[in-house]
Amino acid sequence: QVQLAESGGGLVQAGGSLRLSCAASGRTFSTYGMGWFRQAPGKEREFVAAIRSGGTTVYADSVKGRFTISRNNAKNTVYLQMNSLKPEDTAVYYCAARPHESKDYDYWGQGTQVTVSS
Fold first, then answer.
1. Which of 1, 4, 71, 84 is the most exposed place for a label (fewest CB within 10 A)?
2. Which of 41, 42, 2, 5 is nearest to 20 (CA)?
3. Where are the beta strands (DSSP E) in 8-110?
4. CA pair distance 22, 57, nearest whole angstrom
5. In angstroms, rounded to a whole number, what is the distance separating the alpha carbons of residues 65 and 49?
6. Mean pLDDT of 102-106
7. How far apart are CA 27 and CA 49, in angstroms?
8. What is the CA radius of gyration of the chain?
9. How does strand 67-72 pair with strand 57-59?
10. Taking a C-beta distance cutoff of 8 angstroms, is the pair 112, 18 a contact?
């Protein structure tokens, strides 16, 4: 079982930056694929970014060039650096873990609120 805990959300003005963190429990963090997702009010949850165990990253088109996902396996933590934030980035942000043997994200955090004011 993996437990995930997000932090770093908050209120920021448009054009500002935030860094989200997701701390994971467990001894096999380095083997997990990790992802960030978000859900805005009245909308479905959407993919934001992911980083594989080997370090390969992928981003949604809407955040490409503005957001950066990274991981520190020694700290069992994945980060999402968000720059040039826009009001449409307002959402609850969730991190998720995909075990090496799974095709799905099996573990999810509780989420952290990000609000971008115009």
1. 1
2. 5
3. 10-13, 18-24, 33-39, 46-51, 57-59, 67-72, 77-82, 91-98, 107-108
4. 16
5. 12
6. 92
7. 23
8. 13
9. unpaired
10. no
